[in-house]
Design a protein that fits this description.
This protein has 2 helices and 30 strands. The chain is mostly beta strands and about 375 residues long. The model is unreliable at about 1-5 (pLDDT under 50).
Length: about 375
């Protein structure tokens, strides 16, 4: 192959399994490549992304997402590294909500509240995977059927998540779901990014821009108060690019509640079938740039404040606090309990669809 030729996009089932679950079930690893610099590796367990490699401004490849080397570490970790999150991403107050005047109690696993689908959420289940590739893209279609009553949620839920790498160095995630009963749904991908490389230190010098003029303030237990507060003049104002670490340790009460940033931002664009821009992130040393687009109305920004509390990471690297940032496209936290938030109720006969695109470049 000459230097001017481009390798075809490819989707590969790894010959060696990644590991084994306590019940003896094998966890398989899969690999996608777009043939022009972007490579993704993920697991059948939780659809978990274990590596995402992209070129820097000099063409050097680095893995830009956090992860672990073993299944046991993924099971022991509490940061949800690279996993598909559902049925309900983020928090629900005391795990309680009502749908059509019927009360429900779901799993409580974050102090008094529900978080990320509970212990048996999408991150903890095995997904079926079907791989495809052609000259322009490589993709994997992951499927899971969540039975009625899983972690207390009503109705069975059929979910398909599709990962796609395309020639323009974009990584697209498409979500599709149908339910057997009215039920809240809120999905995201808990990818953590350090654009200078997963083992390069903290992300405080990364430059972040958010296309969000408001955010949802939280109580000390990180449940939204219901207010949609303007970001102007506060530590939450990223309407112009700013270093993540510039104001992260300031006296703002909201920063104290989160130990840094751990808040949902209300995206300015009207959500729907179009793909509005949600965020732009730049790694200062590598020159890598991420542009994030989504059909979702919200973006949870988590500055990795507690990443120093997990197992040792990939290749023996121990992640420190704020070693990476999670930009989680989503509906708002605790939406079933706030009538003025965009609804998360999926009803039988309707189809939930959502798309998020991570587009990588350099400068």
């Amino acid at each position: 192959m000459t230097r001017t030729e481009i390798a075809p996009a490819s989707a590969v089932l790894e010959e060696e399994p990644f590991g084994q679950l306590p019940d003896g079930q094998l966890v398989r690893a899969y690999r996608l490549s777009n043939g022009s610099g972007l490579e993704l590796r993920f697991l059948s367990l939780g659809g978990t992304i274990v590596s995402l490699s992209a070129p820097d401004r000099d063409g050097h490849m680095d893995d830009v997402t956090t992860g672990y080397d073993t299944v046991d570490d993924y099971l022991a970790g509490s940061a949800y590294f690279g996993a598909i999150i559902g049925r309900y991403a983020n928090r629900i107050d005391k795990g309680r909500f009502m749908v059509d005047d019927i009360p429900y109690q779901v799993a409580v696993n974050n102090g008094p509240n529900h978080l990320h689908g509970g212990p048996g959420g999408f991150h903890a289940v095995t997904w079926d995977a079907e791989l495809h590739n052609d000259s322009a893209s490589a993709s994997a279609q992951l499927h899971h059927r969540s039975p009625d009553g899983t972690e207390g949620f009503p109705g069975h839920l059929d979910v398909t998540v599709t990962y796609t790498l395309t020639r323009d160095n974009s990584f697209t995630i498409d979500y599709r779901a149908e339910s057997g009963a009215p039920t809240p749904v809120n999905f995201t991908q808990h990818l953590y990014l350090n654009l200078d490389g997963h083992a390069s230190g903290d992300i405080l010098g990364h430059e972040l821009r958010l296309f969000a003029s408001r955010f949802t303030p939280v109580r000390p237990d990180l449940i939204p108060t219901g207010e949609l507060r303007p970001v102007g003049g506060s530590a939450f104002d990223f309407l112009r690019p700013a270093a993540i670490g510039a104001r992260i340790d300031g006296p703002d009460e909201q920063l104290v509640h989160g130990g840094g940033y751990d808040h949902n931002f209300v995206l300015d664009a009207t959500f729907g079938p179009a793909l509005p821009r949600a965020a732009r992130l730049r790694g200062p040393r590598s020159g890598r740039v991420l542009e994030l687009f989504t059909t979702e109305p919200g973006l949870q920004v988590y500055s990795g404040n507690g990443l120093d509390r997990g197992p040792v990471g990939k290749n023996g690297y121990r992640y420190g606090a704020r070693a990476a940032i999670a930009l989680e496209t989503q509906h708002f936290p605790d939406s079933p309990n706030h009538a003025h938030f965009p609804s998360t109720i999926l009803r039988p006969g309707t189809v939930f669809r959502s798309r998020t695109v991570y587009r990588f470049s350099t400068e």
